[in-house]
Structures are given as C-alpha cells and as structure tokens.
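Crash report, auto-generated. Payload:
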Amino acid sequence: YDDRDGKIWMDGKLVDWRDANVHLLTHAMHYASSVFEGERAYNGKIFKSCLHSERLLKSGEYIDVPIPYTVDEIEAAKYEVMQANGLTDAYVRVLAWRGSGTDMGVASQANPVRMAVAAWEWGAYYGDAKMKGAKLDISKWKRPSPETIPCFAKASGLYMICTMAKHQAEAKGCSDAMMFDHRGYVAEATGANLFFVKNGEVHTPDPDCFLNGLTRQTVIDMLKEKGIKTHVRHIMPEELEGFEQCWLTGTAAEVTPVGQIGDYNFEVGAMARDIAESYEKLVRA
Ligand code: PMP
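Recovered output after restart:
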C-alpha cells in the first residue's frame, strides 16, 4: 500500500502517497495512541460521513488523543483526498495519532496529535462471500471488559486481538473470526457486527463492550421499517445452533451473509439477501 501514485492528506496538506511517512519514534507506534475511521464513498458521497467524523473525535477523547480538527475540517479533508485521487467509489481511512516530539515515554502530553486521510478503491471485503456466505472461525480471543479498555473507541490498540484472531481464521481457510466477549457472550467479528435470524425475528448482540457500528445501527433502523422484530440482547454460545441465518455488518463488510461459524451452519436465506440488497440501495440512494 505504500509505493504507489496518489495523494494523502497529512496535517492539513496533500503529500505524495510515497512521502506520507512518520518518524520511528512516533508515540502511537510504540504505545497504540491512535484512533481511526473506515468509511465508504458511493457515487462521490461518503455514507454517514459526519457520523464517522464525530465518532473519530469521540474515539480520540476516549483515549486522550485530542484531535486538533473540527468535524467540518475533517469532512473537507476527506473530500479533498477523494478529489485529488479522482475517486467516487472508495474506502476512506482517517487516522489520528500521537506523533513524535519531546516525549518518548508512556506519558506524551507534549507530543502533537496528527491526522491523515487516505482513500483508495476497495471492493467486497469478504470477496465472493456475498453469494455463498462467509465462513467464520471461532476465536479464543475475547472482547475485553469496558473496565479494562475504552472498548467503544475505534482505537488501534483494540485491533491487536482482532489481527491475531483474523490471522488464525485465515490460516484455517476462514474469512474472519467470531469473538465472544469477556463474559462468554457472542460479541462480533474482528471488524464487523453480527446479526442472527430465528423464526422470522432478528437477534443481535447488545454492544455493551464493543463498537456499536454505524452499519449495525442503519440495519436495525432498516429492520424496523420493514416491520421485522429485532432483539438486542446478550446471546449465549449454545444459541448459535438454533439460528437459521446470520450476517455481518460493517462499513467495509457492508452486509455480508454468513454460511458457517465454527461447526454451525446457516443458510444464505431470503432475509439476509434482502437486507444486503436494501443496504446496497440505501448507500447509493
Ligand atoms: N466492529 C469493529 C471491531 C469494527 O472494526 C467495525 C468497523 N468499523 C465494526 C464493528 C462496524 O462498524 P461500522 O459499521 O461503523 O463500520
């Protein structure tokens, strides 16, 4: 991803893609003092753009990385990057981090917080799983308690276990991993939320220790409009066996049906397909 043409917005100006570098003694590299957003633009418009920028600022507050930009400035930066790279359909990545400076210890209040925006084309997150259903491994890594980490922040540090879980999943031929939370309830995948269907009703884990995704919220509204009863609650692992359909939601994942989690199988059923199609229409509306 580093050696290519294009422009990246860094700290207020566009730089050549290849020159978008930071110093080795960047605080974030050593101590995970960074937060980010993943967004998708469709037909030149970023879906829920302002909500993503607001979440970024909130994530920064959670982990004491105060971002020196307003929502409007972040919005302008994202569109500037899309335009500079000639993109209308794109994945947009905004990153804010504590940089290098006078401190190199754990405390780093004096080091400036920096921000960058990159955008590129990114097709289906799970490849052809949209039709067949994604295959998920069950991870041994648990989503942590809100008392151990600011779990509602989209903070890079939280992705360490996600990367480990996803590497393990891919080594087993799966596209992603489902994770339980610290209490043993079904939580989410490594970068997407989960929904299940049983007897025509939808069940989705209560996001009380993980990211309540914007796509998740959009899909819950969509289900309400369609008159489909949705239960937001704690889901026990043994319930997986009784669910008929399952799908993942996320900005990158969009709505992707799931065919398998561990040894449990799900059909890529009518509701999963309908929600995936409705989401596709909505983001392009
Ligand atoms: N959970 C995690 C861990 C994620 O990284 C993401 C992607 N941001 C999501 C859920 C889904 O969030 P959203 O729908 O806002 O993209």
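Post-recovery validation: Residues 270-284 form the longest helix (15 residues).
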